[in-house]
Each structure stands twice: as C-alpha cells, then as structure tokens.
Amino acid sequence: MSTSKKYPKIIVTAIFFALLLFTFFASRDHSFRTHMRSSSDQKAAAQKTFGFYLEPVNEAAKILFRHTAPEVDPKLRHIKMQIASMGAAVSICDFDNDGWNDIYFTNSAPESKNALYHNLHNGEFEDVAGRMQLADVNTKDAGVSMGAVWCDYDNDGFKDMLLYKWGKPELFKNVGGEKFERVTEGSGLPSWVNANSAIWFDFNNDGLTDIFIGGYYNEAFHLDSLNTTKIMPESFRYANNGGRNFLLKNTGNGKFEDVTTRYGLTSTKWTLAAAAADFTGDGYPELYIANDYNVDEFYVNKKGEKFEEKGREAGIGHIPKSGMNASLGDIVNEGKIGVYTTNITEKGVLIQGNNYWQPRTEQSSAQPSFVNLAGISGIENAGWSYGAQFADLNNDGYMDLYVANGFISAKQNTSYWYDYSKVTGGNSAIIGDAKNWPDMEGKSQSGYEQDKIWLNNPDGLFEDVSGKVCPPATYDGRAVAIADLWNRGVLDVIVANQNNIPTVYKNNSENGNHWIAFDLQGTVSNADAIGARVEVEWDGKKQAQVVTGGMGFSSQNQHRLQFGIGKSNEIDQVTIYWPSGRVDKIRNPEINKLHVIKETTKTNK
Amino acid sequence: MQQEKRIKNESQSSALSQWLKKNFQYVPPAFITLILLVGQFTFGMLENFTSLVAAIVTSVLAEIILARVVLGTRKNLASAYITGISVGILIRSNMVWPYIATSLLSILSKYVFRYKDRHIWNPSNFGISWMLALYSVNVAGLSIQWGSNLLAVSVIWGLGLIIVNRAKRLHVTVTYVLSFIILAYVRCLITGDAFLAELSPLTGPMYQLFIFFMITDPPTSVSTKKGRIIVAILVAVTEFILRLNDLIYAPFFALFLVGPVAKYFDLKRNAATIPTLKKTERIPA
C-alpha cells in the first residue's frame, strides 16, 4: 500500500474505533433498576442537600392496606399479569370536613375491600371504609374497583365519591360526613365500563360538576368471563378498538345525562388518563386524554356546548405512544400550566419517553399549541411509567415531579419483553387476539423499577434524586397522590402499588422555606371550585395551579393548592380565576398559612 | 388498427424496460423512499424528520469524503442514501446523535472492514446491529407495525417482490421467508407459543426492510445463486437460534454474524476471478 493511501486508511480506522468506543460508553449511563441501600446517613444527607427526605410511614400511620389484582377469565390465564396489571388507585379527600386529609385506596380482586383511611390528627389513620359503606364494593357481578374521584356534585358542602371499575361505575353520596349512600341507580351512570380513569369537571360552567369516564377495554367485555379472546388492541400504536368514553352532564338532583356523542367525544381509543384545565383563556376547561396504543387527544371546549378534538393542531397528536398519565403543572414559573404524560422507556427495546407539553401560545389563543420540553428539562426517560404528579416537595418555589414506575415485578432476572415484541410488532389479526400472546410463565416485564423523583432546579433543569431522597422504591407503582397529610405545610406523597402495599411517604422537610396554600370554595361556581386557576406572584416569579377533580393516573390530589415560595418572606399578589368568570385578587397574603377562600359574589380587585 | 396499437404498446413497454434497465440503480432508493412515505403519511412512522435528515446527510457526506480520501474515487450515492434512510427508519431514539453515529459507523465500516478490496459487511446492518447490541437507553429498534391497513402491506410486499426479482435476488427473499416460516413453526413446537406469535414479526415493517434491502444486498452477498440460497438459510437458522435466546433484533444480528463470514469465504474462493456484478443488478444498501 502506498503511503498516500496508508495514512488516510489509518486515520479512518482510528475514527471508526473511536466512534465504537464513544457509542459504547455513551450507552452505559442509565438504569431504571437502581439498587440502593437505605442508610441512617441518607436522611440527613438528603435533608442537608435537597431540603427534604421522604420516609415511608405505613406502619406508624397504621395504614395496612394491600392491593390485590382483579381476576380474569381462564382463557387469559397465560397473560393474566398483563391484563390484571391495574387497579391500585389512591385519592385524597377530607370527607368529614375536619380540615385534615383522608386517603381512599381501591382494591381489585372480587370480594376484596377498599379502604378509607380517616386522619386521626395524631399521625395515625383509621380504616373507616366499612363503617362508611365504602369497603364492600368489589363483586363479580358489579365489577371491581379501578379508581375513585371525589367531588361535591350536589353542592351540599360534603364531597361525594365516584367509583369507577371494570364494571358498573358507582356514585356514593356523602351524608354529612357521617356515612355514604349508594345512589347509583337512576343516576344515569352507564351500566358497565372497563374504566381506568375518571375525572370531575364542570365543562359548561353551570355550577354543577360533570363526569368524564375513560374506557380502556371495550365495555362489551366482562374480563372475568369472556366468550372470546379477541379483546386486545388491534395495534401497538394505532388501536381504535378500546372502550368508549363517557361524558356525563350533571343535570342536578343527582342525575347525569350521557352527552358523549352530542359533545363529540366519540373516540374509542384505549384511554388511561384525563386532565382538564382552561388552555384557551375563555373560562371553559379543555380536556386532555392520554391513550394507550395510540396518540393522545386534546379536546377544545367550545363555550361548554361541544368539544372539538384538536390534538394534531395542538402538536400532541402526532406520535403514538403509550399514554398512561395526564397531570398538570407549571414547571418554569411563568404562569404556564403544562401537561405531563407518561409512556414506556425500556433500554434497547422501546424508547418512547415521557412528555411535558408546555403551551407555546398565549392562553387567549383559541387553538392552543404545545411544545414537548421533557427532553431538555431532563424528565423524559423514567422507565415503564404510570402515575405522576407535580409538587413542590421542598417548598423552594419550583414544582418537582414524582413518577411511579414498574410494570410487572415477577420472577427476578426474567423478561417478557422478547415475547411481547413478537406480537406487538405484528399484524392486527395477531396482536388483537389474546390467544396469540405468548405465555408469561411468571416472567417480569420492566419490573423492579425505581420510582423517579426529579427535583426542579432554578436553572430549568430537573435533577434525578430518586436514589437520594427516599429508601428504594421498586414496587409496581401505579397511582400517585400528593397531600399535606399532617397539616405541616409540606407535601407528602402517597403511591398505590399494584398487588402490594401502598407507600405512604412522610415528607421530612428541614429547609426553612416558606409556603402558602389555598382551599377554594365556590359559591357561584361549583362548590369545589374545580377548574379554578390560582396564580401566585412573588420575587419576580409567577406560578399557576388549577383545582382539579382528579388527574394523573387513577388518582386525585388533595383539594387545596400549595405553593412553595423559598426564602421569600412576602407574596406580591394572588389572583384567583373562578370558573364562573369572577376574578379575586389578594395582595400580600399571610404566608405559611392555609387560606380558605370562598368565592365572592362580585369581582374583588 | 389494433395491431398498430399493440405494436405501439410493445414499443412503449420496451422503452420503459430499457429505461428501467439503464436506471435500475435508482429504483431501490425510490422504493425505500416510497416505504417511508407510505409509512409516514398513513401511520406517521417517523417521530421527526430531523433525525431522518441527519442520518441521510451523514451517510451521504461520509460516503463522498471517504470514497475520495480512502479510495481516491467518486461513488454513486444511491447506496449511501439507502443506508441513511434505513438508519433513519430502523433506529428509534429521542436524540439526534444516535442517528448520526449509526450512519457514520455504517459508512465507515465499508472502508475499514475490507477483503480483496471489497467490503464484507452490509453497512446499515453493521451500524444498526452495533447500536442495538449496546442495549442503550438512547437507542431502540423500529417497533411499530402497519396498523390494520392490509393495503399498505400488500403494496410494499408487491413492489418489493417485483424489485428484488428485477435485481435477480428474488430467490434470496423467497428462501429466507420460507425458512423463517418453517423455523417459526419449529419454534412454536419448542416454545409452546402460538404459531402466529412466532410468525408475527414477519408482518411488521422491520422485516420488510430487512428482506428487501439488507439480506439481498448484492455487494455483500456471495457470488453464486446456490451460495446465496445457502446463506439465506444460514441467516434464518442463526436467527432461529438467537430467537430461542430471546433476542428481539435477531435478524439483524444473524445477518451481522453470517454475512461477512460467507462473503469472506466467497471472495477467498473466487480470489482469482472476482465476478463483477452488472451495474443494473445492484441494490446498494
């Protein structure tokens, strides 16, 4: 070989091997199965570095609930772990108006009992579900629980409960905080929905909260007694053969009218989550729907008279993923509320990534447009994610993020991913029939994954502190709820885990940061003020939050809204936009205090 | 009148045939572009165009530069285009750098791994296999399917078969597909899974790109028809073994392992008289 040819060849070879090395090392930096050790030093180190530590306190709080999975038809036994992989849900509600948050967990095996943990104000909880008649709700005939959301739908001052199931949804009326009455019959709720999501929201701002229930499996199927195995999604990315959704308009007197078709929510995608907030500035809430096996949907509310699906126009409806969560949060303190949706990331197999859809248009735009900031914010790859919630865990003024991870933790060091990939990459006739799905044989799939906790830093980037601010959390997390359980001005985290105990984290916060919280009560608007938007301005920052009737995955946060403000001693102004259109402004409110605010009858500036 | 019409039709057909023969090198790139367009406009198979453009531009630029620097020649860029577009379709990442790296590795491999002045690895197969084998959080393979639209699948299979037939590589595709089906049946007997589950991957777009573009690639396939049939069977058998070991990207890895070895022995055997493929037969990849 001549010298003139030899040197270029050597250089090219060197570049080639350097690139091999670069790609090798660039691929070694991530694991969702972090094995961490809890140590006595961890708590002190976390408090010193991050200002908080999440300590599991199930036993101390006397929360002994354990979730059990639903039963499935014997024809699905070979993939039972896939099918029966949801149902662990958690919602927060102060059902007796004593000013302390209570917790409701759903169970999913027939004859299993749901639990309502009443807050005893002394750090302990008592399960009063039996006494309140909210425990024995899971039966073969009526279906099994998948989640619950609370709302004072009859504006009597006490929060009632909607229980959604793989079965008949149920409505329970709260009678003075002393007991619940089942008022499903005659209420207009559908006879059967295989639902994994529901929210309360007042879509027409008439002061009566309405219901959205998202269908997952087609409602024709009772999953524990099937006469077919053709129940699976027709595609991993383009499936339209899921359950129908239900939009139920509250007409008063405990009646709900099915207006789904009239309002244009006719999609039959596989819905797993929903969240509602006003993104157009017209006062009416839009509806974000996260779908498994297809694109998410974004329904623009046309003055409470109909919805128009504008997902593609909004930028969120182009790439089909595995939407499993929809939670709202303002991560940059610009008063822009975005939507965080979770999907699947499995190393080398499926890289979907989670999304954070931040509005890029002004709130007054009739056609909102979103940009996905998950990648550049560092909150994209979590694992097989389900529920997620934003919360300022250290009250530093920036909303942090908790993401529940892990699909099926069965036999250690096994994986169903190869078997899964065989059918999910195939034609609809194959994937759509459960009998073609390989036997799981007890294998795990994205199991033993660590829940993600991302700390929002002032530079706009989130820092992964999962291994640092709590002991290992590798249950199969599903629903996440945020609440100040002990009225301390810090936000605690409750995670419902599939087939396991929940994790009740007490937030041990030692940072000297300040906070403010608001509990809104509507007078003209619906009693729970669902849809109200609160903007807190301090130190040149403006953070917005919205009162919801459920968001995330199968979950509902506390009703009150809490804002951390860091070391600031003063808040400049708080603006409350009520669903009725009224606007209240509060200047220099007292900090480190929960403000219970009743909607004024005329605008207060 | 009818005869005139027939003569005119025959003449037109002959002209088309001549044109195709003369310009066949552009047919495979056009076909893979068609697959991309069908996939994109019916299902939105690409997550963004930036990554695809990055893969193609990297591939083409690398080919121009390396051909000039290493070989001192100019090369037809159809091959590099197909490599780039294959990488853009078959790799999935939330970042752009894996597309650039995969394309660059693919083209570089052509100039690094050479025997008897011929490259022995299919370029895109090398780059994609390497990146997938890293088992990274940044890179995965194409995991989608053509939804329930049988028309799109039929069009792609129909056109694909016509083109590989034209390129005199139909026997490779048919041998591999038949081997896959037979071995899928054997696998279902071993694993106890449904036959359709074992057959299922063949219905996805990943395999369509594999059987029409990678395994048929003339520059890296062996010189005799019998040899190519044997290699196709060996690839299917290797894939069969890898599948029994739960490797999702078994076809890429199988070709990665079998292809270069076969090419090496073929070149060695024919060292004295390396057959030059007709330009019109090439499906560059």
Produce a short descriptive summary.
Chain A has 605 residues and is mainly beta. Chain A has eight helices and 38 strands. In chain A, strand 2 and strand 3 form a beta hairpin.
SSE blueprint:
The complex is a heterodimer of chains A (605) and B (285).
Chain A lengths: L2 H24 L13 H11 L1 E5 L23 H4 L6 E4 L8 E4 L9 E5 L5 E3 L1 H4 L10 E9 L8 E8 L2 E6 L3 E4 L10 E9 L8 E8 L28 E7 L2 E4 L11 E8 L8 E7 L4 E6 L3 E4 L1 H4 L12 E3 L8 E4 L3 E2 L3 E2 L3 E5 L10 E3 L1 H4 L7 E7 L8 E6 L11 H8 L3 H4 L20 E5 L5 E3 L12 E7 L8 E6 L5 E7 L4 E8 L11 E6 L2 E6 L8 E2 L4 E6 L6 E5 L5 E5 L6 E5 L7
Parallel strand pairs in A: 2-34, 31-38
Antiparallel strand pairs in A: 1-30, 2-3, 3-4, 4-5, 6-7, 7-8, 7-10, 8-9, 10-11, 11-12, 12-13, 14-15, 15-16, 16-17, 18-19, 19-22, 20-21, 22-23, 24-25, 25-26, 26-27, 28-29, 29-30, 31-35, 32-33, 32-36, 36-37
Chain B lengths: L1 H21 L4 H17 L5 H23 L6 H13 E2 L4 H16 L1 E2 L2 E2 L3 H11 L6 E2 L8 H17 L3 H22 L3 H5 L5 H10 L10 H20 L5 H20 L16
Antiparallel strand pairs in B: 1-4, 2-3
Helix pairs in contact in B: 2-4, 2-7, 3-4, 3-5, 4-5, 4-6, 5-6, 6-12, 8-11, 11-12
